[in-house]
Amino acid sequence: MSPAVEVTLSALAWFITLIRIPRVWRNRMWKSDPMAFRVWVATLFFALTMTFLITPLSIGLNRLTLPNFSRLLAYSAVSTTLYLLATASLVNFPITHSQKLSRLMKYYLGVTLALLVALYLFFVTGVPDWSEKIIPSSLAEMVFKLVLFIFATASCVIMVTTTASYLHQEKVAVTKYRIVTIFLTSTSAGAFFLTKLVLTLGYLWPPLGAGWIHRASTLLEIGTAILWAGSFVHSNLYARVLAVLRGVRYWNVYRDLIVLIDQLEEVCPPVGMALHKPDFWEFVCNSDYHLYRAIVRILDGQTLIADFLSHPSADNPVQATWDDNGLLKAMSLNDLLQEVHLTDDFAEMVAAYRLAGRKLIGVAP
User: Fold this and answer.
1) pTM, whole model, 2 decimals?
2) Widest CA span of the chain, in angstroms?
3) Residue 112, class by beta-carbon neighbours within 10 Å (0-12 exposed, 13-18 middle, 19+ buried)?
4) Cα three-residue angle 60-64-65, rounded to 5 degrees
5) Residue 174 · residue 242 · CB < 8 Å
6) What are phi and psi of 358, to 5 degrees?
7) What are the angstrom distances between the C-alpha of 153 and each of 73, 221, 268, 340?
8) Rounded distance between C-alpha atoms, residue 221 and residue 8, angstroms
9) How do residues 70-101 score in pLDDT, each as one tens digit?
10) Are the CB atoms for 298 and 333 separated by under 8 Å?
């Protein structure tokens, strides 16, 4: 990975960490919400990880300290990051034996850090500075990386399992999509660490160090960093994105409602202000409002036509404009709309009138 990409990812990680400090301090989050504080600490360790992986910085640090010392710091920091996130997910999205798994992860983290330090002191310090290669250049490097990547993969599996098991229980749309983002981030991270594990085993069997696996690993690393940032986006932005996506999904529904409205307006012109019919982007940006206005117009037209047909009057200016075809159209629309079973649920009402609009397409003159 180029230094420019490394610096960009590190800057993104630090931005996410630093921007939340005022909230952490103001709310004294370490007391008021320990799990949220744990997640913030994880972002801090992740930012440190990405910093230690910047090639020019790691080279300079190694020259000032010991060979590959930046790797020990980066691997220790990312292990801590994953431990904090995995245990937080076990609390926020509990599964069977969550408490037992949390204790096991605590011990596993201790073993992982101890192994990293021991391997570094006894083996890694004795080898030249590592250059980022597809396949490790020594047995010590291979074992050192395997310790991290196995722990990292296991941590990601826990996060994927907890979020997937909890997803169907969540009813709030914004929260559900935030959980989906966490799930995708964990899945991408797990896939990334798995590819790194496979590449590391290429030291024992070179075919595992194929170039396409390395390219996939790089893309997964970048994708994980972006998804990680996305998981911290404010809920208002999630709500706005969901509203736009809902608008896209309901555009064809709205067009079917407009077919029904156009037919109603031919026999029953609107009273007062005419319905504004938005274009695609205008509708997508405020779909709930335009759907509501369309349903109100349909209900008004339905009521008026039913009243006109039940109380015919030659003095009525609307009925006076009907010829035989107009009367037949009004009766046809009235029959069609009388088949609609109204409920208090707005979504069901929209679906019912949409069905009427689609039926009308086949009988409209």
Assistant:
1) 0.72
2) 104
3) buried
4) 115
5) yes
6) -70, -35
7) 19, 13, 65, 54
8) 13
9) 989 999 999 999 999 999 999 888 888 888 99
10) no
